[in-house]
């Protein structure tokens, strides 16, 4: 039975709802939607966005108001839900939430963006170090329970040169630093996860999922692929299609990211 999973950084859910997110959600065929950078606390969201009809929702806002925030929307009621992974520093940061559905654990991740030479980059490095250990634990736990797992979200790292258009100009910028790319490689090579979209689109360039609002980045398709669905191997092997729902024109965008949608034959 096909299961469709979508992930998107909404760049502020209240603003996205005004620009077209609500209409998109009403029309999507997805069974699971993972949101990042929600920003607004649940009680500040309109009811039709906070708890839309036909969906079960879990929101994990950041302790710092107006920042980060992740959410999961599932058509089927989750068996269990967890915010964070037991991190003293990051569990209240609105960056990770996961839910158990029959045979599947799905998570929404908003990895810190970082900025070279600042505390923000140090925070990103600490997050990655902790989160890698949790990813190993998650895969072990799911294997013991006979479950698959997929971690969806804005990973804020372009893994390969094919994952951003202007890679030569960004080799010293956060998001494409050699050490960040090596860390993401370790998620695949050591922790044993699979980049689902790249598996179905092995050559590139892209498909990009984020374009700056500045200049003509969107019109020129000068983007980055930083929104991933990262899954256990058996689930990745059952992925049948992967698309980036890129808006037809600049004025139809409701975020600077586009939804990344994968269908699995499960």
Written account of the structure:
With 266 residues, the protein is an alpha+beta fold. It has a single domain (2-265), classed as Deoxyribonuclease I, Chain A. 25% of the residues lie in helices and 25% in strands. It contains six helices and twelve strands. The strands form two sheets. A six-stranded mixed β-sheet has the order 3-4-2-1-12-11. A six-stranded mixed β-sheet has the order 5-6-7-8-10-9. Helix 1 links the parallel strand 1 (2-9) and strand 2 (32-36). Helix 3 (119-145) runs parallel beside helix 4. The longest helix has 27 residues, at 119-145. It is globular and about 45 Å long. The mean pLDDT is 97.
Write the layout of secondary structure elements.
Elements: E1 2-9, H1 13-27, E2 32-36, H2 47-50, E3 56-60, E4 70-74, E5 80-83, E6 96-101, E7 104-110, H3 119-145, E8 148-154, H4 178-189, E9 194-195, H5 196-200, E10 227-231, H6 233-236, E11 239-244, E12 260-265
Parallel strand pairs: 1-2, 7-8
Antiparallel strand pairs: 1-12, 2-4, 3-4, 5-6, 6-7, 8-10, 9-10, 11-12
